[in-house]
Design a protein that fits this description.
Number of strands: 9
Number of helices: 10
Strand content: 15-25%
Shape: globular
Helix content: 25-40%
Radius of gyration: 19 Å
Number of domains: 2
Structural class: alpha/beta
Order of helices and strands: HHHHEEHEEHEHHEEHHEE
Strand order of the largest sheet: 3-2-1-4-5-9-6
CATH topology of the largest domain: Rossmann fold
CATH class of the largest domain: Alpha Beta
CATH superfamily of the largest domain: Vaccinia Virus protein VP39
Length: 269
């Protein structure tokens, strides 16, 4: 088989299925909205600063932010546009985004409850479309296609670099099987097969828990990504943490780097 014969979107879906990645309900994100507002929407967040620095706002008057969450991107850059749209399927995320916009005096933002799988026919087209940390979707090809079709000028998306959110050594230490997820390489190849040749850059977003970070914050970071831990898993995690502290090793939850995959709007058939 040669590369042109590979259906990368089908391969992506198969990888997602093998990972047993369940669809996250709106309730799941409702429960995380407040904390994400504090962490992901922090103006000093290195990820957020680097994402915005990579954007080209030339001649752009409108922005569509798909999977906007608490408004990390759309609220932060609203002053650069005449009109901004934030889309998310979590009502609590939209409520937090609305509150943050009001607190920051942003009055040019329209929020729409919308999922990737919903009908896009009534979603407005904008000069720039973005999908920040929201691209682990069921159908990657359709998602990238919609972002391109709803952009007039440019599209910006981010995808994970590492195949796991947590260091595999930690996952093994607590007794779980290491399950990998699709990363940014799928997006590049899916886009190429759509007829889009994107640019790729990298965002260094460290989430390293060094010696000064206490165990509770370390455990919280691990459970945030892996879900609730059993008592046995907590005991094993404590042993992992104590051993690394004793040996003077840095304690890192994992690689939280992201790939920025972006392109100029392409007219597709």
């Amino acid at each position: 088989m040669i590369i042109d014969e590979i259906d990368f979107n089908a391969m992506y879906r198969e990888h997602l299925q093998r990972a047993n990645r369940s669809h996250k309900t709106a309730d799941h994100w409702d429960n995380r909205a407040e904390e994400m507002a504090q962490v992901c929407a922090n103006p000093n967040d290195p990820y957020l600063q680097q994402f915005i620095a990579m954007m080209d706002f030339t001649d752009a008057e409108s922005l569509l932010d798909m999977g906007c969450g608490p408004g990390s991107i759309c609220v932060a850059v609203a002053d650069k546009f005449k009109q901004v749209y934030g889309l998310d399927y979590s009502t609590k995320m939209l409520a937090v985004c609305r509150r943050r916009a009001q607190q920051m005096g942003v009055n040019n933002i329209t929020l729409i409850q919308h999922a990737w799988e919903d009908d896009w026919s009534n979603i407005p087209r904008c000069d720039i479309t973005v999908a920040s940390r929201s691209t682990l979707v069921g159908d990657l090809k359709q998602a990238m296609y919609q972002l391109n079709q709803h952009a007039r000028l440019r599209v910006y998306t981010t995808h994970t670099i590492a195949p796991t959110f947590i260091d595999p050594a930690i996952i093994r230490a607590i007794g779980r099987e290491v399950v990998t997820l699709p990363n940014y390489q799928y997006a590049i190849n899916v886009l190429a097969q759509l007829g889009i040749n994107p640019k790729v850059d990298y965002i260094n977003s460290p989430n390293t828990h060094q010696q000064a970070i206490d165990y509770d914050r370390f455990e919280h970071s691990v459970s945030w990504s892996l879900g609730a831990l059993t008592e046995l898993e907590k005991q094993r995690l404590q042993q992992y943490y104590a051993q690394h502290k004793q040996q003077g090793k840095p304690i890192s939850a994992g690689n939280h780097g992201w790939a920025m995959v972006y392109w100029d709007k392409v007219d597709l058939a």
